[in-house]
What we know:
Two copies of one chain form a homodimer.
Chain A: E1 2-6, H1 14-30, E2 35-37, H2 65-77, E3 80-90, E4 93-101, E5 107-112, H3 124-127, E6 138-140, E7 143-147, H4 156-164, E8 169-174, E9 177-178, H5 185-206, E10 210-214, E11 216-219, E12 226-229, E13 233-235, E14 241-244, E15 251-255, H6 260-267, H7 270-273
Parallel strand pairs in A: 1-2, 2-3, 7-8, 8-10
Antiparallel strand pairs in A: 1-15, 3-4, 4-5, 6-7, 9-12, 10-13, 11-12, 13-14
Helix pairs in contact in A: 1-2, 4-5
Amino acid sequence: MKVAIAQYACTPDIDTNLASAEREIAAAGAAGAALVVLPELHNTPYFCQVEDPARFDYAEPIPGPSSRRLAEAARAAGVVVVASLFERRAAGLYHNTAVVLDRDGSLAGRYRKMHIPDDPEYYEKYYFTPGDLGFTPIDTSIGRLGVLVCWDQWYPEAARLMALAGAELLIYPSAIGWDDAVDDSAEQQRQLGAWQGVQRGHAIANGLPVITSNRVGVEGDHTTQIRFWGHSFMFGCQGETLADAGEDAEQLIADIDMHRSETVRRIWPFLRDRRIDAFADLTRRYRD
Amino acid sequence: MKVAIAQYACTPDIDTNLASAEREIAAAGAAGAALVVLPELHNTPYFCQVEDPARFDYAEPIPGPSSRRLAEAARAAGVVVVASLFERRAAGLYHNTAVVLDRDGSLAGRYRKMHIPDDPEYYEKYYFTPGDLGFTPIDTSIGRLGVLVCWDQWYPEAARLMALAGAELLIYPSAIGWDDAVDDSAEQQRQLGAWQGVQRGHAIANGLPVITSNRVGVEGDHTTQIRFWGHSFMFGCQGETLADAGEDAEQLIADIDMHRSETVRRIWPFLRDRRIDAFADLTRRYRD
């Protein structure tokens, strides 16, 4: 199955960004891809760099204008689209939500980001209520998709729960980068390596391919500037790199063998042996 | 803190193997290491390649002759030793047990391998009862050690439970290799990459260093031959490679910064945000 990742810089203008998404979806369809994954919050600048109540204006309901426009692009291209939107659920209640649009333009499902970060320049706890839909895969015409979002990617629990629910792919729209004023080059490489490395671990531990899109480009002013590091990637179900976009590629396309999990899980039957009788403390904050 | 890994081939003779362990412990002490990790079941050939009731003769109680001899070596060298023994607990009741000997020669604790594999040439379910001591770190004079064994290394749950219980290092004695008759070179590289990759994931997800020793050498006859792949390693708490023994090095020594977890967990506070309210299904076999 051919899979595409769109990796592009987002502008302050929503309409421009939506046009970029439409262009990428069309290109993915023209290239024969069955699935295209867009980066996190691709409609807007990465607005979480500061806490500003005016920025809730970026949010919209789902279904809403953007999801409908993306659904139409999915239908026109005949591609399943994993999009990432700022969801307004009610006044004062917002989520960071991944939306899956099937190739017929229907809304296959949504995933509300469960793990919300909050670090300098990533003030997401201000904007997003933690998801309340659990770790639930989304069924589509091309398979059951384990869609998670960015900060979730650091949590093996999230990947495992998706795998246990029958997800056939793990998918992470992301927005992560460096602050060049804070991180030297060695630290930047460790962070990039860790970001890919922890997700490679999810592929291996669960015998599933992982598809992750990331933003590129520099956003913010000199006091809060993020250089989104790109390096969108696809890993196979032994963690092998199938494709890596580096910092420049705008669209990454690779073949994913959807039957390989069956083979790999036979030689490494990790699911057979999990010591579920001894896992109860995983629901504790700390074992003290 | 200087840490040593011993990576050596094991022979059919227990006394020879114990002498190798003593030599490695002494060398680690002479090199100024505070800790040395031996490979899995280093006293014996890897006897699990066939199911043979006579091979239970390899087992011994703990404390017992081997643990006492290793304890004396630990005391003489002034080094904490993580050893790996075939434990006879009662007639018909055996475990694959890691033993931690403190630098004063005392038995700091034991860990009974929780996840037991069973694959062609690795018939461990025949020999080892799954551990019943849980995922409990062992306190020593150099810190709290999250000692696990081999097949455990594929399970993010095991690493997480050790981290939640305050482990400062994750340590895995291992015995893993290729069957050259089954695996071609590309598959061998994927397996080695996956083995290191999943453990790199544990380092990153938990902000902890990982220290893993593996056997080297070829064992078995032409019908069941394992080429243990070595590549013992130490990863830092962002998953960065601190040392990798390749297939040849007999002793690997590197410095581990025991204060870096504190720093890394401040920039990546994963433990803060775990969605423990949504993790209950981790104790299910499958979510169907």
